[in-house]
């Protein structure tokens, strides 16, 4: 496993950025689907749902990306905890 946290400063820079990226990827189908449906509703004037608009089918892919994002988040937290322990032991 890679070392992510090397200095105390990385808790403020790397940690929030990586958590945001993992969350963004987990919810990306919802963001794309709702955004595309909103643009389609603006241009056509008709409401979008799963039956008449391909954009509203995309949020269903969250059933795959959300568990993958959760697993990635757990692995990331384990790596951060391991790096924190190494950082604390290194200072002592």
Features:
mainly alpha, elongated, 3 helices, 70% helix, 92 residues
- Total number of beta strands: 0
| Rg calc | 19 Å
Segments where pLDDT lies below 50 for 5+ residues?
Answer: none
Strand content: under 5%
**Tell me about the biggest sheet?**
none
Q: Would you tell me the structural class of the helices and strands?
A: mainly alpha
Distance between the termini: 23 Å
Q: Report the order of strands and helices.
A: HHH
Shape label: elongated
The helix tally amounts to 3
Mean pLDDT across all amino acids: 88
Portion of residues within helices: 55-70%
Q: How do the helices and strands line up, and which of them pair or pack?
A:
Blueprint (H helix, E strand, L loop, with lengths): L9 H17 L1 H17 L17 H30 L1
Helix pairs in contact: 1-3
Please describe what this structure looks like.
- By secondary structure, this protein is mainly alpha-helical.
- Helix 1 runs antiparallel to helix 3.
- Helices cover 70% and strands 0% of the residues.
- The protein is built from 3 helices and no strands.
- It is elongated, with a radius of gyration of 19 Å.
